[in-house]
Amino acid sequence: MPNSTGRFKRSMSLLAGVAVFVSMFVLAAIGQQAPANSGDVNLVNILATVRDKHGKIVNSLSQNDFVLDEEGRPQAIRSFNRETDLPLTLGLLVDTSPSQRKVLEQERSASGHFIDQVLREEKDKAFLIHFDREVELLQDLTPSKQKLNSALGSLQQPQLNRDEDDSDGSGYPRSGRGSGRSQMGGALLYDSVYLASNELMLKQSGRKAVIVLSDGIDRNSKVTLERAIEAAQRTNTVVYSILFAGHQNSGNDSGWGHGGGGGMGGPMGGGPMGGPMGRRGGGYPRSPESQQDRSNGKKMLERISKETGGRMFEASKKETVDQIYQQIQEDLRNQYGLGYVPDRPGNASEYRKIHVTTTQKELVVQTRDGYYPAKQLEAKQEDAKQDKEQK
């Protein structure tokens, strides 16, 4: 497991005070609006994938085939290209809670194959996070397929630890005291999306995508679903979801825990209540999942993906993880880049809805549904900074 710099050791403790952070961010962002009459800075960039009614990719459209509006007002498209060559920053977020025990090897194998197929080591980079009752960065951003595959190989279910069973008979562990962090069992799905967006994607340029492998059932995250989605939207990160439903624990497992894993050693080295974020021993009793839980998990993944411009897939015998990854790969290799300058200035903290269609009504456009002006400006400034450094 990598022992990266501690530059993000504040991350999970940040979640405990996330309301304060967001307030400060909004106040700072309001002072960062784009200067007037600065077309380059105000340019909003959108990545879009287009399919026909049969779900097949359409990659032969021109600029005149697209129609774009912001908050219901038509916008003139100023730039257009096919974004197959832009650098890609990719994140894999793997649920390692007990509900995913039976599919973990399948996830590991398919994810490794996907990395080998998609990542261009001269341009792209990726990271790997796993989450259960804590969030852990197994591999920081790297262009190395070897490092990523090695990290995938370290994915494992937490081990049984009956001596530290915190169960109170309700199917969930009791919350711990005195450690300064959450000790309850869970799958911190929302926290993992939030941290991946704010801590790893924030300063990246080019195309950014996160792939979540989970049943969609979140337990005990410090941030809400809405806050997780907002973090992805603010950093222009597209979220793809692969749903693994109906894989509950079986057998006589009364609890699990990580044995002495220690600190994370990477960008997310802080626990959700101020402690280290690394794996930690402790009970996590089997928690029965109802049909309602699974239905809600699917809805949550659908929402995260839809509102960030991605897609939700459901793994099954008819549609395997490998087949799903092939579709995601096709998405990432067949994107259009659209750019426009909004006809009205906006408040930096205001989320602005956008809608993209084509003149061919039978075609379906997949893209994000909005943006935050402040983050659009910051992305431009970061791109300019990186361009200057490369020169």
Total domains? 2
Q: Kindly identify the CATH topology of the largest domain.
A: Rossmann fold
**Count of DSSP H/I helices:** 10
CATH superfamily of the largest domain: von Willebrand factor, type A domain
CATH class identity of the largest domain: Alpha Beta
Provide the residue-averaged pLDDT. 75
- How does CATH name the architecture of the largest domain? 3-Layer(aba) Sandwich
Fraction of residues in helices?
25-40%
Q: Report how far apart the termini are.
A: 34 Å
**Which sheet architecture does the biggest sheet show?**
6 strands, mixed
Structural class: alpha/beta
What does the secondary structure layout of this molecule look like, with pairings?
Elements: H1 11-16, H2 18-30, H3 39-42, E1 44-51, E2 66-70, E3 73-75, E4 77-82, E5 88-95, H4 104-118, E6 125-131, E7 135-142, H5 145-153, H6 189-201, E8 207-214, H7 225-234, E9 238-243, H8 291-308, E10 312-314, H9 321-333, E11 336-340, E12 352-358, E13 364-366, E14 370-371, H10 373-390
Parallel strand pairs: 5-6, 5-8, 8-9, 9-10
Antiparallel strand pairs: 1-11, 1-13, 2-3, 2-12, 4-11, 6-7, 12-14
